[in-house]
Design brief:
Number of helices: 11
Largest sheet: 5 strands, antiparallel
Distance between the termini: 50 Å
Bound molecules: flavin-adenine dinucleotide
Helix content: 25-40%
Number of domains: 3
Structural class: alpha+beta
CATH class of the largest domain: Alpha Beta
Strand content: 25-35%
Radius of gyration: 19 Å
Strand order of the largest sheet: 4-5-10-6-7
CATH topology of the largest domain: Uridine Diphospho-n-acetylenolpyruvylglucosamine Reductase, domain 3
Shape: globular
CATH architecture of the largest domain: 2-Layer Sandwich
Order of helices and strands: EHEHEEEHHHHHHEEEEEEEEEHHH
């Protein structure tokens, strides 16, 4: 690995200042993607800026009005262990417990998962389904971007030069809401999703009143499929409605064939994973 300088600023303005003065610098949260990429030579850095000492990036707060704030450097194990997240956002606690294994979860952050912008990233479809937004800071101040607009290409995101992700904001789910993320992996754990489906639904009097569906590993970026959620709204909760939404999600997918599976296999899995995730989300919504 090529040698680099390391710094760990204690404030956000300091981190932004470093990024502005050294545009080739790389940000490090848990490092579970970055260090692998630096070692393999896929990425290079003269300076690595460790963001873990910045208090705002370590915030993990829930407010019933404002929703959930996940600081960009919060490691997955804190989400898994958080009682409010377990009760209000069980799907998020599950995703955090599926990223890598115990050691990885001690370092890896959801912020890093998002910024790495892998088409297969496990947290992103669920964040999209939950209507989450990214809070970004940079030399021009702060701005907010919907998660479905954050990734722009494999490994690329919306962040401009000098900008960094501060936190992810997830709105408090409406009453009778449920969410789920399911992925298909050839092994039981520590594998990259062949297909993942993140869904969130709200139900009133047996009818869907809101739904959002997103997929991973079937397009150059995590794929939001608004039409699949829209197809559920106004429909009674019944297997036919779930299957129809799953078919729309499947049609939107444009996967490639690779060593993990053919495009046709991935297409098939889109419908299966979406329908199964919807079944879990419906059960959760009915229990809420
Ligand atoms: C053994 C192993 C298993 C894994 N299993 C999974 C899995 O099951 N599912 C999955 O989705 N991923 C998996 N990963 C990938 C990785 O662990 C996740 O993507 C993780 O969430 C990355 O978080 P991090 O904090 O380590 O990010 P880092 O490696 O620190 O950063 C990732 C990228 O984002 C940038 N970055 C980090 N923070 C910011 C910020 N605040 N603002 C702007 N840019 C930033 C970095 O510069 C880097 O380019 C695995 C990795 C390993 C090594």
């Amino acid at each position: 690995m090529k040698a680099f300088d390391y710094t760990a600023p204690a404030t956000l303005p300091e981190a932004v200042g470093l990024l502005v003065s050294q545009p080739s610098a790389r940000l490090l949260a848990g490092g579970t993607d970055l260090i692998v990429q630096l070692r393999s030579g896929r990425k290079e850095a003269d300076l690595v800026i460790d963001i873990k000492k910045i208090p705002e990036l370590n915030a993990l707060d829930f407010d019933p009005i404002a929703g959930l704030t996940i600081g960009a450097a919060v490691p997955c194990y804190r989400l898994t262990a958080h009682l409010v997240i377990q009760s209000h956002f069980p799907a998020l606690a599950e995703v955090a417990s599926w990223i890598g294994g115990t050691q990885i979860q001690g370092r890896a952050s959801i912020g890093g998962n998002l910024c790495n912008a892998a088409p297969s990233a496990d947290s992103i479809p669920l964040l999209i389904a939950l209507g989450a937004t990214a809070l970004i800071a940079g030399p021009g101040g702060r701005r907010t971007v919907a998660i479905e607009d954050f990734c722009t290409a494999p490994g690329r995101n919306q962040l401009a030069s000098g900008e960094l992700l501060v936190s992810i904001q997830i709105p408090t789910p409406a009453p009778h809401s449920g969410a789920a993320y399911l992925r298909f992996i050839p092994r039981n754990e520590m594998d990259i999703a062949v297909v993942g489906a993140g869904v969130a639904v709200t139900i009133a009097d047996g009818v869907f009143t809101a739904a959002r569906i997103a997929l991973s590993a079937v397009a150059p970026t995590p794929l939001f499929v608004p039409a699949a959620g829209a197809a559920l709204v106004g429909q009674p909760v019944a297997p036919a409605a779930l299957e129809a939404a799953a078919q729309i999600a499947q049609s939107a997918a444009a996967p490639i064939s690779d060593m993990r599976g053919t495009a046709a296999y991935r297409k098939h899995l889109c419908a299966v994973m979406t329908r199964r995730a919807l079944e879990i989300a419906v059960t959760r919504a009915q229990e809420n």
